[in-house]
Design brief:
The chain is about 30% helix and about 20% strand. By secondary structure, it is of the alpha/beta class. It has a single domain, classed as 3-Layer(aba) Sandwich (Rossmann fold). The structure holds 2-amino-2-deoxy-6-O-phosphono-alpha-D-glucopyranose.
Length: about 220
């Protein structure tokens, strides 16, 4: 798999925003899979600047913490703040994983699947919240977060104790059914895991390595 290395975070953000832009220009009724975390923030900024028509777009977020959705760090709030309230997307066109998880899967299937899925990567190789050991066939489900993930994400919550320990995530099987996938990674602390995932053994202990089995993945990295 080829990793395209970009010169700066700005370039990473605008490159991925342009992939989304092309998708929406060509297919205004696209279904997008969307990530959260620090990495995609610049991409959302760039997307907002492009003033695209989101009125026919349907979005499916990759994951949510099992927590109060009104919490400032909930992914629902993150998406509202960074993208949704700055575009003309219809509120009922944006979906987050929910229980029963099979109903969320039905929603994706009922909209004929995800056309373009944007992913980040965790330092342990997770994609969405599919932690090491997740089955490549997994579907949307409730998961316990890995210690490493809780530690990494505690920066948003002030302490490990206050960081959610569970989440609902799209499964690897769900993500792999996306027609196109873009993975973005920022920072040299991601380089090693990115290399292992893209060029190493395809194994459930490195969830992102499943992407080697997909025939339309683009990987963008900047340090
Ligand atoms: C979080 C999210 C992932 C995200 C990853 C990397 O735990 N659930 O979807 O890709 O961690 O986040 P960041 O971009 O903040 O490093």
């Amino acid at each position: 798999m080829e990793i395209k290395v970009l010169k700066s975070y700005k370039e990473l953000s605008s490159t991925v925003a342009n992939v989304v832009k092309r998708q929406l220009k060509k297919h205004p009724l696209s279904k997008l899979g969307l990530p959260t975390g620090d990495t995609p923030l610049g991409m959302y900024d760039e997307l907002v600047k492009r003033e695209l028509d989101w009125s026919h777009v349907i979005t499916f977020n990759l994951d949510v913490y099992l927590m109060n959705v009104d919490h400032p760090e909930s992914y629902q709030n993150y998406m509202r703040k960074n993208l949704f309230e700055k575009t003309n997307i219809y509120p009922d066109h944006s979906h987050f994983p929910f229980r029963p998880t099979s109903a969320f899967e039905d929603k994706i299937a009922g909209s004929m699947g995800i056309d373009l899925c944007i992913l980040g990567i965790g330092t342990n190789g997770h994609i969405a919240f599919n932690e090491p050991g997740s089955s490549f066939l997994s579907r949307t489900r409730v998961v316990d977060l890995d210690e490493q993930t809780i530690e990494d994400n505690s920066r948003f919550f002030g302490s490990v104790d206050d960081t959610p320990k569970q989440a609902i995530t799209m499964g690897l099987g769900t993500i792999m059914e996306s027609k196109k996938i873009v993975l973005m990674a920022n920072g040299d602390h991601k380089l090693n895991i990115l290399n292992v995932a893209m060029n190493g053994e395809v194994t459930e202990s490195i969830p992102a390595s499943v992407l080697q089995n997909h025939d339309n993945v683009k990987v963008f990295y900047c340090d």
